[in-house]
Amino acid sequence: MAGVALLVIDMLNDFVLPGAPLEVPRAREIVPAIRRRIDEAHGKRIPVIYVCDAHGRDDPEFRIWTPHAVKGTSGARVIDELEPDEADTIVEKTTYSAFYGTRLEEILRGMDINRLVLVGILTNICVFFTAADAVMRGFEVEVPRDCVATVTEEEQRHALGQMEKVLRVKIT
């Protein structure tokens, strides 16, 4: 029987910590809910996969966004409160979708996963594009609203609405 995996998206120092280059203040509000989800997943032996932005120093994305999550820097590390366990999987990505240019789909298929629970940031960017790519690859997707955040309430509502109405993502 196929199973479920928890994807923790971009809960990195360069996005979450106060004063970070691309700080998302609302990200700090969802940390306890994400921690509970991770602990529940571990308790049920559900795979936890951390999807982490990881850029080279001259990444083309830096023409759009200020430099962030540069490989090998503390900014590219998962925040201490959500630090991965040894058994967890880490997938590095260089753009919005966790599937683009990564081994994520291969990893999921190898684990016989057909359902994903997405948590993390930003709801309207990396969570959204990962959800879209997952749906287009045939995965069922759930997004718990208390475990995702973005910069404004308007962006949050719009992204969750689009995922629910257009992608048929289960918003819980």
Structure, described:
With 172 residues, the chain is an alpha/beta fold. The chain has one domain (3-171): Isochorismatase-like (Rossmann fold). Helix content is 32%, strand content 20%. It is built from 5 helices and 7 strands; from the N terminus they run βααββαβαββαβ. Strands 1, 2, 3, 4, 5, 6 and 7 form a 7-stranded parallel sheet that branches. α4 links the parallel β4 (113-121) and β5. α4 (123-136) packs parallel to α5. The longest helix is centred in the N-terminal third of the chain and has 17 residues, at 27-43. The radius of gyration is 15 Å and the shape is globular. It starts with a strand and ends with a strand.
First-last Cα distance = 23 Å
Proportion of strand residues? 15-25%
- Give the overall shape: globular
Number of E-type strands? 7
Helix content: 25-40%
Number of domains: 1
Order of helices and strands: EHHEEHEHEEHE
What value does the average pLDDT take?
A: 96
Low-confidence stretches: none
Q: Calculate Rg over CA atoms.
A: 15 Å
Reading off the top of the CATH hierarchy, the class is best stated as Alpha Beta
CATH superfamily: Isochorismatase-like
